[in-house]
Amino acid sequence: MPISLEYKAKNELLQKFPKIETCLKCNTCALVCPVQYAGFSPTNTYVNNIFSTQEPEKNPNIWLCASCHKCEEICPYEVKPLEVIEALKDEAFEKGYAPEAIREEINQVLTTGYAFPIFQSLHFINRERERRGLKPLGERKVGEIKKIAGKTGLENKMAGWKKK
Amino acid sequence: MTKKYAFFRGCFVPVRLPHIEAVAQKVFSDMGISLVNLDDFTCCPEPVGVGINDKMTWLSIAARNLAVAEENGLDIITVCNGCTYTLRHASHALNSNKQLRDKVNGIISDTGHAYKGNAKVSHFLEVLMNDIGTRKMKSAVKYPLSKLTIATHTGCHILSPKEIMEFDNPFDPTTLDELVMILGATPADYDKKTLCCGWALMTYGSREGAYALLKDKLGNMKLAQADCLTVVCPQCFYQFDMGQWIASRKDIPQYNLPVLFYLQLLGLAMGYNLQEIGYDSHKVKNPEFENKIKMR
Ligand code: SF4
Ligand code: SF4
C-alpha cells in the first residue's frame, strides 16, 4: 500500500476514507497545490503527510488547505484529497482542535456579521469610506445570525470551547 | 433602462478596500447598471473558515442572504470569489435537494426569511460579459491601455468546482485575458497562472510558505514582462498587494508589481485617473507603471 499507515487507528481511518488507499504518491496533486510552498516534497505529498501521522485530525497542516479544488480536479486516481482534508477539518473542529484563527473568524461572523473584527477601528474605516464618497458601515443583522446558530447548535459549541 | 442588482459587497471590500467598492459603483453606473446596497446582508459566510467546519450554519446564513435579495426582487452581483463560491454553492445545494431546502428553511424561519431559489448569483465578471457585453465594453474604452502587459490571476474559488461555478476552465482560464484585451492591453503568458494566491497559507498557518509562493508567482509574472497584475477577488488583491509589500521586506526580491482589481483597469480605460480609481490606497506602487497609464 502506497501510504504507510502503521498505527492502530489504521483500519478505522481507511473505512472512513477508503480512497486514500489508492493514492499512488504520484505527486501530481502537490504540483498544483499551494501547500507545496510550505515544504511538501515529491516524497512527502500532502496526503501522505497528513495520513502518516498518528491522529491526522490533529495535524496542523490540514488547515493550510485553501479548498481550491485543484487536487481533486487533477488527481488521476480520484483520491480527491480535498474531500478527506475537509472531513478531517470537520472532525478536528468538533473535537476542538481548530486553530485560533478559525475559531475567532467563526466567532466574528456569529457575533458581528463580519468575518473579522471591525468595530475597534470603525472610526478609521468610516473616515476612509467617506473620503471615497461611501456611506459609513454599521451593525449587521446579528440577531438573525444568532437565531440561526442557536438552531444549528454552533452557538452552544462555541460557548463550550470558551469555557474550556 | 437601468438594470438593478443587489450589491453583495461581502466583508473584505467595504471594510479593507473601500476604494474597490467606490470604483465598482462608478464603473457600473457608467455602464447603465445600478448596484443597490441592502442593509440586511451579512457575511456570506466565508467558505474556508466557516463553510467546512459547520456546513449547516454556513448554508443557512447563505440561504438567508439569498432570501434577502429575493425578497427585494433582485439578482445578486458579487465582487469576491469567496462570496460567489458560498452563495452559488448554497443555491446549488438547496435547489437540487428539497429535503435540505426544507431543513434550512426550518433553521432560518425565525429570522422572518424564507429561501425560494429565485435570486441568481453573478460575479461582476459575469455581469460584464453577459449583461453589458464585449461590444458595449469596447465602446466604453476611450483610453486603451495599449502600453501595458498585464498578468491575469483569476483565483481559485470562481473556477472550482467547475460543475458548480460554471465559469471557466480551472486549468486554463481565458476569460480574464479576453477582458484585458478588450481594454487594449496584452495579457502576460506566465507560468503558474492558476496557482492560488496563498491567502489560506498566510492566514491559517504558514507565512513563510505564503512568501515563497508569492516569490514564485510574482517572479514568473515579471519574467513574462508584466507591468502589473490584475485580480477579481479582494483576498487575492490583499495577498498580492499587502503580501507583496510585507514579503519585499523579507528576503524576496523587490518585484514592484502593482496590483489592480479588474474594475480599476476598466475605470482607467474609461478615462478615470489613478487617484479616481483609488491607486493612492495601494501598498505597491511603481512609477514606470504610472507613466504608462499617464501616457495612455
Ligand atoms: S494526485 Fe492523487 S494519486 Fe497522486 S499523490 Fe495526489 S492524491 Fe495521490
Ligand atoms: S484543495 Fe487543498 S489540498 Fe487540494 S490543491 Fe487546493 S489547497 Fe491543495
Task: Write out key terms for the chains shown.
heterodimer, A: 164 residues, mainly alpha, 2 domains, 9 helices, 50% helix, 0% strand, B: 296 residues, alpha/beta, Glutathione S-transferase Yfyf (Class Pi), Chain A, domain 2, Rossmann fold, four-stranded parallel β-sheet, 14 helices, globular, binds iron/sulfur cluster
What does this structure look like?
With 164 residues, chain A is mainly alpha-helical. Chain A folds into 2 domains: 10-94, no CATH class; 100-163, no CATH class. Chain A has 9 helices and no strands. The two termini of chain A are 40 Å apart. Chain B has 2 domains: 3-124, Glutathione S-transferase Yfyf (Class Pi), Chain A, domain 2; 134-294, Rossmann fold (3-Layer(aba) Sandwich), CATH 3.40.50.11810. Chain B contains 14 helices and 8 strands. A 4-stranded parallel sheet of chain B has the order 2-1-3-4, sandwiched between helices. In chain B, α4 packs across α5. Chain B is globular, with a radius of gyration of 19 Å. Chains A and B meet through α4, α5, α6, α7 and α8 of A and α1, α2, α3, α4 and α6 of B. The complex binds iron/sulfur cluster (2 copies). One iron/sulfur cluster binds at residues 29, 32-35, 46, 65-71, 81-82, 85 of chain A.
